[in-house]
Amino acid sequence: DIVMTQSPDSLAVSLGEKATINCKSSQSLLYSPNNKNYLAWYQQKPGQPPKLLIYWASTRESGVPDRFSGSGSGTDFTLSISSLQAEDVAVYYCQQYYSTPITFGQGTRLEIK
Amino acid sequence: EVQLVESGGGLVQPGGSLRLSCAASGFTFSSYAMSWVRQAPGKGLEWVSSISGSGGSTYYADSVKGRFTISRDNSKNTLYLQMNSLRAEDTAVYYCAREVMVVPADAYYFDYWGQGTLVTVSS
Questions:
Q1: Nearest CB to B109: which of A97, A99, A107?
Q2: Is the bond leading into B104 cis (omega within 30 degrees of zero)?
């Protein structure tokens, strides 16, 4: 199984500042024939189910604010929030879909400083 | 509007059984593979089981293989998870989620999730 490791486990950022969450996979998620990285990001607010933010490592889901962006390739990926808003307080998860079983990172808790 | 509504959770003793349901609406249910994903209290997400749109193919995490059975009734737009021989470590919120299949991996990510139903296994 592919192991997904996120860092840090928790993060406190001031309102309006940039937040960066990292995700590392135990093997490459880049499929060379189509040059796509098989990685998604989810946001889970307290008491709510996860919500899809980004897929193919950098494609925003419809309706997701453009302050959220994904980057990276191969085994190292980043979720960035350009200007943190109060409503962004949540736990963020990465997920690989390069192979089954699909696996998630352990989550990163984002709080306001 | 896509909606997924889980039900059937509750308190059950170790070794007991429970059947979860997920009622789907707002999309052509039979066209989508579906999964169950669980989240133990205060923990992360764990994929549990998946079923193809027709119901002909099913997949399980090693942690539940032989104890859980996933099924669907496309005439009722409903997904099920039959859970037998329950253990304390099965205590979690169980979410149903709609899969977005990708090629060529035959893997998927999830574009819609239900609100979840809590299963507590305790004596």
A1: A97
A2: yes
